[in-house]
Amino acid sequence: MPFDHITPLLKSNNSKIVLLVMDGLGGLPIEAGGSTELEAAKTPNLDRLAAEGMIGLSTPILAGITPGSGPAHMVLFGYDPLHYEIGRGVLEAAGVGLHVGRGDIAARGNFVLLNEKGEIRDRRAGRISTEESAPLVERLNTITLPGVELEVRQVREYRFAVVMRGSDLHPEIDDTDPQQTGVPPLPALAREPAAEHTAELFNQWIAKASQTLAQNPKANGLTLRGFSSDPNFPSFNKAYGLNAACISVYPMYKGIAKLVGMELVDFEGDAPDDEFTAVKKHWEDHDFFFIHIKKTDSKGEDGDFHGKVEVIESVDRALPALLGLEPDVLIITGDHSTPALLRTHTWHPVPFLLWAPATVRPDDQTQFGERSCAHGGIGHFRALDTMPLALAHAGRLEKFGA
Amino acid sequence: MPFDHITPLLKSNNSKIVLLVMDGLGGLPIEAGGSTELEAAKTPNLDRLAAEGMIGLSTPILAGITPGSGPAHMVLFGYDPLHYEIGRGVLEAAGVGLHVGRGDIAARGNFVLLNEKGEIRDRRAGRISTEESAPLVERLNTITLPGVELEVRQVREYRFAVVMRGSDLHPEIDDTDPQQTGVPPLPALAREPAAEHTAELFNQWIAKASQTLAQNPKANGLTLRGFSSDPNFPSFNKAYGLNAACISVYPMYKGIAKLVGMELVDFEGDAPDDEFTAVKKHWEDHDFFFIHIKKTDSKGEDGDFHGKVEVIESVDRALPALLGLEPDVLIITGDHSTPALLRTHTWHPVPFLLWAPATVRPDDQTQFGERSCAHGGIGHFRALDTMPLALAHAGRLEKFGA
CB contact, 8 Å: A362 with chain B? Predict the structure, then answer.
């Protein structure tokens, strides 16, 4: 694991590292011989940074593997997702900004429709709208159980997340979703004796929730899946000696950042400008800034090539504010590719730019794009190398061996 | 291992994948500043595919390691030869098309010349010619033993392979070749109690064979090496969910394909045209086609630079028939390099071309050759990534994590 090699070499200094992630940055041409989104975008600032710094192509997980957002970010932070697994419940909770502390148990929930015999008629409650399910989530949040704290938050439509907080809780509990209709939801069953008490608490909660929902015509029951607890990752501070901040509009990425111990920065607005202003405001408080730009991915998933181009251009226009802070190391990349052509996350390698005026070895590339990155000085590499490269270029790693 | 990460992500669709292996494709210039065989060949079709797709250089095993045909193909199929070992006996048997089923025991055999005291005078029977040894193999094939089935096949000159089929056979048996002259062949000795019965059967067979050969003036004895059984690899179907076909003229490659559960396609002729016609005939029956072209390697081993160029050009001319089938993913590569200059397999990285009209990220290369592949969009990579890349570009892999 990277930490085994990196952590013992850490040294401290006053350097500032910025990791700017444009979600789903990597793209594809939409016509034969055409440009990708990043190549098509007019990006004078990014191109200047590419010319002064070095670029390359990173593989998020392994060749051919398309990452979800969780693993794609974990790997940028240096946590190999083939080793460090985040439970589905924790990821869903983190995704809506629900705090999962050490020893807490999170689960994903579905509202379902039951028939008069208590058998599931619809596993997704007819894909009930977000507006319709919001008051149901509110009612679930009124349920109390002795000795534990409970928090429920809406995800969207028929989906919600629930977190149970208390002492001696264990997540080894089977899903209550039977994955079929015509049968009742399963009880929460412990897979190990240690989890029996937790399963019993969830069953009590489910019983109260079922009473609360009973009269609702569309969603009169629920199922829970992916019981899991805080994955207990080594914190960013412990792994890298960095006091890290997360600047993100979307809860999902805040949740992931929190799992590695980053501090969440609150700010107004949702444009790149707003995010960079937030960085400026907290510049003295941290030495590592993870900035997340969501809309590159959203436009990619919408199949909106030109929209994605515009988001990239808006980031480029806002960049001078960030550069004015004079970071020692600035990495600009994506967590994965989301080509508008394919409207989904893909496995294609991701453009990567490393700018560090005092320490970088420049290559001969002068534009930031997929084709130029294929010829860049960093070459093709695993995204897991991101943090070691950032720390080295910030002068934060001692020599290995004498 | 790749399967650990790939197999859980598999999804099914109607895509067709073609893996066209030109054996020993990688080459070297024969004069300073000159072209390699692939660069010298006129290949308008390959160049068009390179322009539309992406190219790179693959390392079969590890830097500097020259692979044999067995491991070089296994790695293309995604079976890491550093982990999945094929016994030498099985590889020799597979190489001459001798079937080694689950529980069968294969060994490599040498004809030897013994003196009047039964000591080995020549460990290779004076490199007896293939013509001279053929009738000896025929005689060995008349030997029977109760309870087991035996099959012997000539390899060439003094070499043959033998397979024993029966129940409860075990391969943990030491070589009978003492690796020196002036001593008699060793008896087959079991390394484990479970293999004692099998060793005894081989000793009975050796005794009968020695009687049969006793009067032959050049080859009056034999030694056996590399006792091994079916390596029990996960099948291609289990590993990848693919119903794979092997189109090969040479028994060796059929044997390897069979070890991973590919179906062997029978066809007439031995030209690239004939192989592609066979693919066309069976296009509806399979979703993965491994096509093996032998003569690139043969010409390389002959030191025949221009002959190798001509074979490459003949493949290029035949390609339109294959393209007419409209595969979703077409990979064209070699299993290793066999530069005519060096007349042998080498460790040099192998030109690799991936064409997939719906999903590939094109690079800026327009020719298929070693120098252009060094600048290609795939970069330098391990050949073990071949199958994950093929599956991803065919849309056959789900996202990893949420």
Answer: no
